[in-house]
Amino acid sequence: KQEVTQIPAALSVPEGENLVLNCSFTDSAIYNLQWFRQDPGKGLTSLLLIQSSQREQTSGRLNASLDKSSGRSTLYIAASQPGDSATYLCAVWATPLVFGKGTRLSVIA
Amino acid sequence: DTAVSQTPKYLVTQMGNDKSIKCEQNLGHDTMYWYKQDSKKFLKIMFSYNNKELIINETVPNRFSPKSPDKAHLNLHINSLELGDSAVYFCASSQRQTGILNGYTFGSGTRLTVV
């Protein structure tokens, strides 16, 4: 059964730092991997989608990589801002979408 | 234009009541899902429908009954509500064939509080 783990569970950084969020999954037979952002009391916003044949995707200051063979993905956030504070969720699509427990990020001004 | 919309956004009800949550998507997707986010913020699949057919039914109490009148709608009916049902329920949709290209789209959630 697919399990998704996200490390760290929480992270607090000063504004301007570059940071990396980690995601690992137990079964490499996935269709794609999707990173979401969830603000407190809000829904999920899709950030990046990496298909199983791809190795990375970029959107603005965000870059996500995927290494299927090792069961890992990373989300890189460049030049962090207070507005980046949220919970970041990694989810792998192995029918259905299986989520990690998230990384709660706080960016301090 | 809201892609996946859920109603109501908030629901407070007493134990033992029966309630429904509605979900609609205007993306033309053929697959819809219900996820539950517990107090620890963990999201877990409950049900999935593809073209009105139930394809995933996780170990959810049978007090929960999903209904899909058409592929754009997936409702969740809950009987005899219990305190432990308090959670945020998210509806989502994807296109089963091309979903690998487009991913999932989530609604904004329904916060259910059972008192």
Task: Describe the structure in your own words.
The complex is a heterodimer of chains A (109) and B (115). By secondary structure, chain A is an all-beta fold. Chain A has no helices and eleven strands. In chain A, the strands form two sheets. In chain A, strands 2, 4, 5, 9, 10 and 11 form a six-stranded mixed beta sheet that branches. The relative contact order of chain A is 0.34. The model of chain A has no long low-confidence stretch (mean pLDDT 93). Chain B is mainly beta. Chain B contains one helix and eleven strands. Chain B is globular, with a radius of gyration of 13 Å. Chains A and B meet through strand 4, strand 5, strand 9 and strand 10 of A and strand 5, helix 1 and strand 10 of B.
Tell me how many strands of chain A there are: 11
Structural class of chain B: mainly beta
Oligomeric description of these chains: heterodimer
Roughly how much helix do the residues of chain A carry, as a percent range? under 10%
List keywords for this structure.
heterodimer; A: 109 residues; mainly beta; six-stranded mixed β-sheet; five-stranded antiparallel β-sheet; globular; B: 115 residues; seven-stranded mixed β-sheet
Offer a quick outline of the entry.
The complex is a heterodimer of chains A (109) and B (115). Chain A is mainly β.
Annotate the secondary structure layout:
The complex is a heterodimer of chains A (109) and B (115).
Chain A: E1 4-7, E2 10-14, E3 19-25, E4 32-38, E5 44-51, E6 56-59, E7 62-67, E8 72-77, E9 86-93, E10 97-99, E11 103-108
Parallel strand pairs in A: 2-11
Antiparallel strand pairs in A: 1-3, 3-8, 4-5, 4-9, 6-7, 7-8, 9-10, 9-11
Chain B: E1 4-7, E2 10-13, E3 19-25, E4 31-37, E5 43-50, E6 53-57, E7 64-70, E8 73-78, E9 87-94, H1 99-102, E10 105-106, E11 110-114
Parallel strand pairs in B: 2-11
Antiparallel strand pairs in B: 1-3, 3-8, 4-5, 4-9, 5-6, 7-8, 9-10, 9-11
